[in-house]
Amino acid sequence: MPSDEDNQPQASTSGSGYGEIRASIDVDALEKYLERNLKGVRLPLGVKQFKFGQSNPTYFLTDANNTRYVLRKKPSGALLSKTAHQVEREYTVLHALHQYNLRPTTSSNSRVPVPEPYLLCTDTSVIGTSFYVMQFLDGRIFEDARLLGLPSPKDREECWIGAIRALAALSSIDPADIGLGEYGPPGAYFPRQLRAFSKIAEVQGATRDIDTNEQVHQIPFYESMLRWFQTHLPDESRTGRRIVHGDYKLDNLVFHPTRNVVIGILDWELSTLGSPLADFANLTQPWSIKPEYLPTDGVFRQNVRAFKGLPTNIGTSEANCAPVQLDLLETEYCRCMNLEYPLKDIVFVKSWMLFRTSIISQGIAARVARRQASSANAAQYSTSVDLFGDLARKVVVDSGEDVEGVNQGAKL
Question: Where does the Aminoglycoside phosphotransferase domain lie (predicted)?
Answer without folding.
Answer: 47-289
